[in-house]
Amino acid sequence: MKYFVSRLSQRQLIRLYSLLLAIVLILIIITSGPSGQAANTEILWDTYGVPHISSNRTPDLFRAFGWAQMKSHANLLLRLYGQARGRAAEYWGEDYVESDQWVRKMGIPERSQAWYKAQTPKFRQYLDTFTAGINAYAKAHPDQIEDDLKTVLPVTGTDVLAHSQRVLHFTFVVNPEELQATLAKIDPGEPLGGSNGWAIAPSHSASGKAMLLANPHLPWADLFLWYEAQITAPGIDAYGATLVGVPVLAIAFNDAMGWTHTVNTYDGWDAYALTLRDGGYEFDGQVRPFDTETQTLKVKQKDGSWQEQTLTIQRSVHGLVVAEPKGQAIALRVAGLNKARGLEQWWEMARATNLREFETALKRMQLPMFTVLYADRDGHILNFFNGQVPVRQEGTFADWSGVIPGNTSKTLWTRTHAYEDLPRVVDPKTGWLQNANDAPWTTTLPAALNPDDFPAYIAPRDVLYFRAQRSLRMLMEDPKISFEELIRYKHSTRMELADRILDDLTTAAKSSNDPLVKQAIAVLQKWDRQAEANSRGAVLFKAWNDLMDRSQLFAIPWDEKSPLSTPDGLADPEAAIAGLKTAATEVLKNYGALDIAWGDVFRLKSEVNNLPANGGPGGLGIFRTVNYTPADEGQFQAIDGDSFVAAIEFSNPVRAQALTSYGNATQPDMMQGSDQLTLMSQKKLRPVWRSRRDILAHLKSRTTNFGNN
Fold first, then answer.
1. Which tens digits make up the pLDDT trace of 331-356?
2. pTM (2 decimals)?
3. CB 3.0 to 4.6 Å from 397: which of 439, 460, 501, 646, for a disulfide?
């Protein structure tokens, strides 16, 4: 062969190489699928049910991601898309009438059509291939889908946008429960959908490398479920999580950088009180007519037939009419409904390789809300109060939190703030940034932002919840945090509220001669002030807290000049001791002992596990947030809180550990091995496998065939 090649002329060599190149190209075409799907598009499923998806063509990556989500969550995904259409009652009966009414009144189906047209041609193609993967899986595996859910098929890119809109704008930005609380003038209290996030600079890191902690707290069901995945294609190799049904990662990292979100103190909606007159409403001294539309809801009956309901939708210049109290109408206005490209923005954020590229993506301002915490291998950290914040007239955050007069254009906002207007901190001298659903003013201490530099309605400045105080305290007390310490602090169950108030409660109890009070305070004095599985006293303290009115509890209110030592003192010591006696009576009645262990009462349950829990409600000042619901035999079961967790150090290679507490699948055939509650009970994360070598070493199965179009 060597002799033969040496006898070839230069022209013959060129012809030979050209022929070989042509053969290679022909083989590539032959081995491609009928839709141009590359033969090396694959999903490697690891032993925890995490899909590692790779392709040399981005559209095929999206197709495989749609396939993966169906394999893991087919029934859930189709139900969510059916609800986003506003046709769930038509598909599944009267239990979904209120859901359909909300979706239809908010205009989600029509707006999703407009949003689809507003996508860039490239991203519209990605939406189409994502849904092609969903439909292909359904065609190939009909036995994996419940029969009553097949009516949703086929799904389209419009369904994806409708679902995303329902989740982001009409669940997180505003939802029916929050709206009703505002109309009833009820304080909703600390957000239920919470989160923790940390970004640590090299100066505050033991390794000299930046670190990131992602820790959202969401309900463990329905549209709040996280889906963990790795996606790799030309220009992207990102690992993270998204909500089921969303085609891009919402929290992610790559070798160069990463970000997480927290639910911020964002007000992107207003309820306007309209004065009714002459069949219309008063506005700027005139009477305006409502825009009225009638739609028909079909409701499936038990016998399989349908009944029709008429839905009358009225709109004012402010927005949809959502209530009609006596002599008035209440109209709802929601910001950002003209921003159609939030999913594409998340996609571009995951493709960034440095702070400049990441901020270029952020400046698109297409996501309606969420604080952004960012860290990278160059050592930069960032906290950005992201949101489509309305440009309002003067007033505080509280002034705009109730029902607003709607009879004048002076209160009607028409635009939102630009990126440059919003609170942003990059590379603070402290070397760390945090958010635990507190306002942006306490993202680091000493404060890097002055709230006086921003409109008073941007964010509140009159409260700092105890979980945020705990977050700040841990970061301030350790000048050099290691990766191992980052994970340990993430699992901290110490109750900041107990540290603040227990001494005062003990002092107040000294004046009581009640034997039960003395017994109860003795238990609390021995308690470790944590919510560990073996903590004795935590159940009693929580029972006492649940009986107390937090708004009336403290003698000294929170003061922004003393953010980590207020509120403080008991406003009514006698009431506090009376509450302690009642709590002790209840605990004795229910459990037979005041010092019952936390893990005996609070449990982590699944079909295969029933384990002692650790962690508790964030309102107690617990960083390791877990919320519970009553279960059998006086126990409580975790249903909310720590869901997807990721700890990342931007070393070379990147170090990362993660956990999706409830597992990465809801489909019966995929749930085995996905449950991670055992690790959660042990306060552990699991290694993140990103290299092909590591993935293959923990391989459960491989998918290469994603069906035909």
1. 999 999 999 999 999 999 999 999 99
2. 0.93
3. 460
